[in-house]
Write a structure and sequence with these properties.
Its main location: membrane. Helix content is 7%, strand content 57%. By secondary structure, the protein is mainly β. It folds into two domains: 80 residues, Immunoglobulin-like, CATH 2.60.40.4130; 491 residues, TonB-dependent receptor, beta-barrel domain (Maltoporin, Chain A).
Length: 724
């Protein structure tokens, strides 16, 4: 019996030896054909794997018979999965595989806005990132500002507040722009008086990424982030120097010229961004009023990076911006003699500084000091009225963070000062104010298990004028599989009353009574989000990434700007402002094609003294569609279409629904040069085509709400080149 058993074992071993084969493959870049060194090929069912050599060759030894999935990976490239039946047909040549560059760049990016350094897929708070090629593509369309960059995202709408000067503010999930906090590298420098033109005065060429958190975020950065926050992350110098230049011109006779330089040598690094943006008075409706004003803007932003020693670093930044903007009667702006012309003139000067000092106390603990100071001087002149003032604001913070195996903690103290001094305006009722906010916060990230991650935080803010604000926050992430992720979060927020709102901006702060802190309290909010992400592959070439967000925010006793005779005053009646709805995003990938489909449902109502009404200037239904064809690092072309449903207007009327359709393209020539051409709004959708923008005469217009584009069909194109 034993000899038969030994013979059976021997035969089994021989059969195993003869049923195993060696398999060789070559892995290369799809575009250039260059071999990829260090690429991995893995048979997950066994498991068995190997790494490619300097020629891109990889050898899998003794692969057993059977049908297995080969998974081929390389950092920065799309993962390739194919099935092979072994043994494969005999061949002396290795099987060749070409990998395409990864388009899912967000998976590799670090999120900074939630005060941790984690990749986006590991963060419980829902964060949206615009980066890489997406940032570049959107920046091509409006190189002079970030309005287009944000307006094409679901749940975000940029609201134009002036028919003639193009002033705009950002609305997240239907809420007024004053409820969104705009940051630069985690420092709040665009708020209050300086927020009215902020979107129009930020050029995107020096941005590495843009992070958006929707919903209550006051726990992270203090008051003003009831609807959410937008954090503009600047580029930093890398080992390889960079000198990039962009030149852009438009059919509306606009011009944008930007340059970005970055270099690092030893312990010292620097970046310098400068831009010149010019607009020419433009009236596509031929009504005698500018849809695009005449403006000239200069910006320079140098930054210094110093690695003091291996455990500490210092970053210093300076931002200088100067702009003159004139809109209104077209003939008057062009220099003609006009009797009683209407005009709106904005003159702006901005100076801001930033400081960031990091000290690594030990392997797990870091100490940080942050500071920014902003000076903003703006004047607004219309016939028979001039309003001007200066805003002085600062933000200072010290924090300490520590990381363990499963948990991260960060705690800190900060001081936020905000002072406005009126220079010209209503002399009897100046709009001066001075707010100092003292804050303390603590936040924890806890990996409870492989599937569960929790983020909790608590902030306590104090203002002499409006009291104490306790601000808790909670987020949870459940990831049952690599393809499915759930996020649930919520928190409280507040906004201190100031006169700088969208409604006040529309009337140029004329005839407005100041806010008496003794008669008002801060606006307070509560909100929650539920987020679902799903990824699925249909074969080797078709894939879907889907995201659904349910949101809810309620603001108690919000401020209302109310006419009282010939004047306006803020009131705070008992009631609430409530927004709820959903955002749906789908991204389909098939070979070199990508289809983005987004839908936003925003149901925003206000209720005062038991009277409920629709909140104005919110599209209840929005659809975003973008179809892209893209050969990575070579050529791309995209067709986009956006739908806006009718919006309730402040005069009691209802606006019209409309579509905006555009075509965008870029062609690259090597690594250093590209040309781009965009046809924005080529259906020439304009409010002046299907509705009016003012009543009365052109010399004394009474402007209606602007809910649709006024500039119409505009072609823009230009070149980008990199000298270093």
């Amino acid at each position: 019996m034993l000899k038969y058993l030994l013979v059976g074992i021997s035969l089994g071993i021989c059969h195993l030896a003869y049923s195993q084969t060696d398999y060789q493959a070559k892995i290369s870049d799809k575009d250039s054909g260059a071999p990829l060194v260090g690429a991995t090929i893995l048979i997950k069912e066994i498991p068995l794997g190997a790494v490619s050599d300097e020629n891109g060759l990889v050898l899998l030894e003794q692969v057993p018979d059977g049908t297995f999935t080969l998974e081929i990976r390389y950092l920065g490239y799309e993962t390739l999965r194919i099935k092979r039946a072994f043994p494969v047909g005999l061949s002396e040549m290795p099987e060749e595989f070409s990998l395409d560059h990864s388009e899912e760049e967000m998976e590799e990016l670090l999120v900074q806005s939630n005060r941790s350094s984690r990749v986006i897929e590991d963060v419980p708070t829902r964060v949206e990132i615009i980066a890489g090629e997406e940032l570049s593509e959107k920046g091509n369309m409006k190189p002079g500002d970030i309005r287009m960059l944000l307006n094409e995202s679901t749940g975000i709408q940029t609201q134009q507040t002036s028919a003639t000067s193009y002033n705009s503010s950002i609305r997240i999930q239907g809420l007024d722009g004053k409820y969104t906090q705009l940051l630069r590298d985690g420092l709040p420098i665009y708020a209050g008086y300086s927020s009215g033109l902020s979107l129009m005065q930020i050029a995107p060429l020096d941005l590495a990424q843009v992070e958006v958190i929707k919903g209550a975020s006051s726990t992270l950065y203090g008051g003003g982030a009831i609807a959410g926050l937008v954090n503009l992350i600047s580029k930093s110098p890398q080992e390889e120097p960079e000198l990039s230049i962009m030149l852009n011109a438009t059919s509306a006779l606009g011009l944008d010229a930007s340059a970005f330089y970055a270099a690092k040598k030893g312990k010292i690094g620097t970046t310098i961004f400068t831009s010149y943006n010019k607009g020419t008075a433009y009236d596509p409706a031929d009504i005698g009023l500018t849809a695009i004003p005449k403006f000239d803007r200069w910006t320079i932003n140098p930054k210094l990076f110093w690695d003091i020693h291996p455990n500490s670093s210092l970053t210093l930044g300076l931002n200088l911006m100067k702009e003159d903007r004139l809109g209104g009667n077209l003939d008057f702006i062009k220099g003609a003699e006009v009797s009683n012309p209407y005009f709106e003139k904005n003159t702006t000067d901005r100076v801001s500084t930033s400081l960031n000092y990091d000290l690594q106390l030990n392997e797990a603990t870091q100490f940080q000091v942050k500071n920014s100071y902003s000076y903003y001087d703006r004047s607004i002149e219309i016939p028979d009225f001039l309003f001007s003032g200066k805003q002085y604001s600062s933000f200072s913070e010290v924090n300490i963070s520590t990381k363990g195996n499963q948990s991260e903690w960060i705690g800190g103290l900060n001081l936020w000062t905000d002072q406005f001094v009126q220079q010209e305006g209503n002399e009897d009722t100046p709009l001066d104010y001075n707010l100092n906010t003292y804050g303390a916060f603590v936040q924890n990230l806890w990996n409870a298990s492989e599937q569960w991650t929790f983020e909790t935080g608590f902030r306590l803010d104090y203002q002499k004028e409006y009291g104490v604000f306790p601000l808790p926050k909670f987020s949870a992430m459940y990831k049952p599989t690599d393809a499915l992720t759930f996020r649930l979060g919520g928190g409280l927020g507040y906004k201190s009353p100031t006169v700088f709102t969208e409604d006040a901006e529309r009337i140029h702060f004329q005839y407005i009574s100041p806010i008496n802190p003794d008669l008002f309290e801060a606006e307070k909010s509560s909100g929650a989000n539920l987020d679902l992400n799903y990824k699925v592959a249909f074969g080797e070439e078709l894939s879907l990434v889907a995201n659904t967000l349910l949101f809810y925010t309620s603001i108690q006793n919000p401020l209302l700007l109310t006419p009282t005779g010939n004047n306006y005053e803020f009131q705070q009646p008992t009631g609430n402002l409530e927004t709820k709805g959903l955002e749906l995003n789908m991204k389909w990938n098939y070979k070199d094609f990508k289809l983005f489909v987004g839908y936003t449902f925003a149901d925003v109502h206000q209720q005062y003294n038991d009277i409920k009404s629709t909140y104005p200037l919110v599209a209840k239904h929005r659809i975003n569609n973008v179809l892209m064809y893209e050969k990575h690092e070579n050529f791309w072309i995209g067709l986009e279409a956006y739908y806006f449903s009718p919006q309730q207007l402040n005069d009691g009327e209802e606006g019209k629904s409309y579509w905006i359709v555009g075509l965008m393209s870029e062609k690259k020539f090597g690594e250093s040069f590209s040309i781009f051409l965009n046809f924005e709004n080529f259906l020439d959708t304009r409010q002046t085509r299907f509705d009016t923008i003012y009543t009365g005469s052109i010399s004394n217009p009474e402007f209606r709400d602007i809910y649709a584009p006024v500039d119409g069909f505009v072609i823009n194109g230009g070149i980008k080149f990199r000298l270093l």
